[in-house]
Amino acid sequence: MQWETVIGLEIHVQLATATKIFSGASTRFGGAANSQACAIDLAMPGTLPVLNAQAVDFALMFGLAIDADIPMMSVFERKNYFYPDLPKGYQTTQLDKPIVGAGRVTIATADGGTKEIRIHHAHLEEDAGKSLHEGDFGSQYSAIDLNRAGTPLIEIVTEPDLSNATEAVTFAKKLHALVTSLGICDGRMAEGSLRFDVNVSVRPLGSETLGTRTETKNLNSFKFMEEAIVREVARQIDVLEDGGSIIQQTRLYNGDTKVARSMRSKEEANDYRYFPCPDLLPVVITEARLQRLRDALPELPDARVARLIERYAIAAKDAQILASDVALANYFETVAKHCDDPRLAANWTTGELIGRLNGEGLELAESPIDAEQLGILIQRIGDQTISGKMAKQVFDGVWSGAGEVDQIIKERGLKQVSDSGALEQLVADVLAKNPAMIDDYLATEEGRRKKKLGGFMGQIMQASKGQANPQQVNQILLAQLQSLIQSRGD
Amino acid sequence: MHNMSIAELGLGLRSKTFSSRELTEHFLRRIATLNPRYNAVITVTEESALASAERSDEQLRNGAGGDLCGIPVLHKDIFCTRNVRTSCGSKMLDNFIPPYDATVVENFADAGAVMLGKTNMDEFAMGSSNETSFYGPVKNPWDITRVPGGSSGGSAAAVAARLGAAATATDTGGSIRQPAALCGVSGLKPTYGRVSRWGMIAFASSLDQAGPIAKSAEDCAILLQCMASYDPRDSTSVERAVPDYRATLNDSVAGVKIGIPKEYFSDGLDPSVEAAVMDSLAALRELGAELVDISLPNSHLSVPAYYVIAPAEASANLSRFDGVRYGHRCDNPVDLEDMYRRSRAEGFGEEVQRRILIGSYCLSAGYYDAYYRKAQQVRQLIRQDFVNAFEQVDIIMGPTCPSPAFKFGAKGDDPVAMYLEDIYTIATNLAGLPGMSVPCGLVDGNPAGIQLIGNYFDEASLLNVAHRLQQATDWHKLQPGGLD
């Protein structure tokens, strides 16, 4: 039987506010355990929440960016359940009246087209703390770190509009680009700044009814998300083809061991006893507030792709990559500013730079070569000071901290020889020393002679100690060989 | 000294007839002597009281300090007090020492008032007789075989027994007004949002409101002046100027329209209490007030609506008491579930557990619409009753509670009978309106209270009418015997 996959996502996005959603404690990542939890975060008796206006603005910015309906009023509710890292015994979240209503996000599809993914809604809520089960507190104890408790989140819920793992990942990356472009999230997935819950079901191709779904929670990398979906789809198809049925359940996927397991079934689910939080007033959104935010909205990924293509005439594929991350796009634009060849700037940024960063597991902000230096390096290729090959050496030099571009070129004597008189002589010398190669070249059928040029080029570049301008050498070589052909033919 | 009003005490302090330290020592002695009989005060902060009295004396010597500077007061043990145990009347918080002050406590400290200690209360403010306190019941100073009312029974009894110049209290369904009535003192529950709830341990967040219990309406005016403030730490606190409550105390009540709701004079009302209430109303009519018969047709729905909404909110508010971070934790838990179960079963008393169960039930899947949603709809109807009434009248008056103080144990095994104690007071909490109780005479030697209900943020009218009544009558001056 042919199967069709239906995927919906729930995405938790940590908002990049300085303080928590209901208290003044810092949201900084990585502090000593419980050093960023105040009396409110600890749910001490008598303490009360006060809503962080910045968190509301960030949620609204997201709503504006996905062209969502934004209700005039939204309401916080209490979701009741006991857990040691949930200090109040309830999570303050939104249910019936979320801050952001229905919207849409457009993604590029594999066939070169686009697809609209509907967003059901996005709501504001607080994050829980963390339970620690290993540490210097002894194996008979668990410990609680409440630094994360009260960190503002928006939970974004999609409609089940995604059809496979690739689309889901494309969407997830687009969402990442969107929230980082908006500046509402730092995008650091390894720190849990974006976490994906994946709802997956399968059904016979062409069927109208949805199959029973499972939810795999808390995936914090695109790779794990893709793996988890692929494996879950395969598992469900196996079960169904063996005549079994899918049990609605919540699952966890371990990206390191590649093992997924059931966390709880529908029957074990809590009755959360939601009700409106009486400590918080309904949030009323004015048109003036929305207008202020709309006016201040930064450039969004789609607009950025279009602008990069328009302004720099770079390939659409490069523009997509560069626009996926504001910092990367800014980096590229600085590179382009310092050289005359934006296409080459795009190639180097998306190729050499990103490859190197990924290879060494570095963030862009940690790049040993800054955008200005990369721009200068590309300019040195453009103005023919150095060859592309030399440029890679210089790139390595800057990367390893040997100095700046021009300094390395000078110190290593890497300047390429572009003096045509000197190059004419160099080529003539090499030809004179290699009559056999010339004979071979001349004996070769005209259409295949191009392949023989490499041998001459190698010798000439070696003779110049790599400093000859390869394009120039190529032209001179062809001209001299042509005149040889003519002289022999005469 | 202990019978003097706050204004008289202020004069005495300023004229150096006595110092705040002397006044504080006087009340501390009274607490030491009399409190064992009443159990109204559960924590005495003698050392810090004397220190703060000396600071206030210093201020007074410099000609500084306002109406409450140097005045010894007691705080209900629901208000968090920095470095002083705040138990909320519960074993759960018997070991809890907050690192912060409630805004109300802070306001009093800023005004130079002296905190003598903390008053007893029904556990987590759940009760109408003070019998649910972990620290034992408070005895009514008028008759120690009778309850003082609740949940602010400690505050009301302490003021009746003159253990402090005044006391703070809170009111979720009548917890200021009912004990004030049963102990023969004056108590005011302000409009919801008038006084900050920051640092006040929550029972039912949408109903809880702090207010004063004192010997007179005038004292209440001075105390409310201090308690009322906009507080950015409480999102439900209302940013609205606080009027000068004393300035209008003596305004004439001639022409003031007093609404008399027929529903508040129905079958359950003790005829002697009704007679006492009618005496006060007659006194007001003599002062020129106009009595208008009105109807609050949905009154009979307030107790059932309240006993859905209040427990629902409480069930969530009390979830934080889980034994994890502070408060009572059971010995040697075998796992997390065991720790939760035993810590809460041991830490909470029976009434608190009952209300958590009721509240959880009302919010459960499948019951929410029938109970919680319905109760919220009823709440709208009750609010609308008052909005309609205040189109005709300036204030509403009636009995505070159906009968005088009952004997200990009289309603102990019948929660519903206990819940009906608040039949006349609960509606104002549901509507968020200000309400007040002042003494209106004795019934067989026990005090009865008359209730005044005002329009939103119109505490000034309540205080004005109550004060004029107290100028014309002496019921508020009646005292239990055996106090001196």
Order of helices and strands of chain B: HHEHEHEHEHEEHEHEHHHHEHHEEH
Biggest β-sheet description of chain A:
8 strands, mixed
Query: How many E strands of chain A?
Result: 15
Q: Return the structural class of chain A.
A: alpha+beta
Shape of chain B: globular
Describe the structure.
Chain A folds into three domains: 290 residues, no CATH class; 113 residues, no CATH class; 70 residues, Orthogonal Bundle (Arc Repressor Mutant, subunit A). The mean pLDDT of chain A is 92. Helices cover 40% and strands 18% of the residues of chain A. Chain A is elongated, with a radius of gyration of 30 Å. Chain A contains 15 helices and 15 strands. By secondary structure, chain B is of the alpha/beta class. Chain B has a domain of 251 residues: Alpha-Beta Complex (Amidase signature (AS) enzymes), CATH 3.90.1300.10. In chain B, strands 1-3-2-4-6-5-10-11-9-7-8 form an eleven-stranded mixed β-sheet, sandwiched between helices. The mean pLDDT of chain B is 97. The interface between A and B is large, with 28 and 44 residues.
